[in-house]
Amino acid sequence: MIAEKYSEIKILINPLKAISILLILLAFASPAYAGTPVVDTQISFTPSLYPGESSTLKVIVSEVSGSDWVKDATVSVQISPSSGVVITPSSQSVSRIDKKSSHTFTFPIEIVESASSGNRNIIVTVKYYEMDLLNINTLGPYYLQDNQYFNINNPYGKISVNTNPQNADIFLDGQYKGTSPMTISNVIQGKHTLLLKKEGYNDVSTSVTVIPDSQSAISKILSLKTGSVSVSTTPSGAKVYIDDKYIGASPLTSTGLLPGSHAISISMNGYRDVSDTFIINADSSSSYKKLLVKQNGNIDIDSTPSGAKVYLSGSYKGVTPLYLESISPDTYNINVVKDGYKDLQRTVTVKDGSTVSVSASLEKMSIAEKVVKQVSEESSSISTKNTISTKEIEFKAQLLEAGFIVFLLIISFILLRKIFKNRVRETPNIGNQNIINNIHYGDNIETNITDSVVQRTNIGSKRETCPYCNDAASMGDVCSACGRHIENTNSKP
């Protein structure tokens, strides 16, 4: 039944009216009736860049005065020449830009390190579409192109390097470049580190800023490497001179000394001056220690008589007159010894830079003193093999001295006896005895008897020698010396 109803519907179309309606629809669908959008672009970019730098390209697409909206707008960017320039991405799209609206597109642009300098052209192309009045048909595409220029600057400069002394090794940012003097070319702009090295000299590190298309100059005086020395003395407080320059009082440390040999002088009152050398190595510290020696004095020794042996604190030094030099300050025992004279002992004190005079007047020794000395010397020599006590030596000396005294007494007795005999010979001691005096006058004898003792005196007769005591007496007489009877062999019968 339904089918029957539908089948009964009839559409009656007037051909003329149908054509009119179609023409009206086409008119609304045409761009002329819909209105074409008006698109504008704005491009902004850094006018100049250096290799290694980057920036952002900004493109603004706007519908400024049209009667319709923009469909499927695509912005593409190209760089001419393109070497050394990277754009990522190179195109971007948006599906719709309404009437009197805009859309911003951004494109990162990077300049590589190897990019050559010069001008670059940025070409921006906008591709877009539009719709009819009924939004049925897409019209287009339409294209809009714009340009922007920028410059890639020369990023390189130069560095001239000079040193005193020359021939220093040059390192730029850690890379060896050569020896001074030299000019380093093609140095990228910016801040760099320059290192200068030379054997025996301190390294010099400095920074330098390179400006494109310009030259930076670096000039450096290299300083020699130095060392230090620590000086100490015993006693402390001594004046220290290094290379004839006063440094101070010990102990001290002197820095900034050039490598090599240096002279050092040390002085202190009452002590010997020190003149020496020491070696300094670069970048090192050394030490110098000195035990100061007291100044020396002199001893002038003379004796009367001269030629005496001199012993200084037991050490033989020579014979007088004697001048001893360079004697260290101290107290000394001096022995002056000469055969036949008593030893002389003196104690002297030698002071810094002074001379001590010793005058010895030696005293002769007695015989007993000589014997005692000889025994003492013999005992001293024997003591190296057998130790003899001092009491034993004194006992032997006393014994020898007693023997010597006995010897002197014997000699004295003999001399006295001889003197006594001579006196008896000259004057006989007859005491109270009676004497018979026989006086000879030639051959005549006159006898005088006094008691029982006969004394005869020959006058003018020949004298004989007593055969008993060898005294002179007349023969036939009684010896006047010994009293014995003497026969006179020369008497007449």
From TrEMBL:
Transmembrane annotation, as ranges: 399-416
UniProt keyword terms in alphabetical order: Membrane, Transmembrane, Transmembrane helix
Residues of the PEGA domain: 157-218, 227-293, 297-364
Protein biosynthesis in keyword set: no
Gene3D superfamilies, A to Z: Carboxypeptidase-like, regulatory domain
Superkingdom of source: Archaea
Protein name (database record): PEGA domain-containing protein
Organism whose genome encodes this protein: Methanolobus vulcani
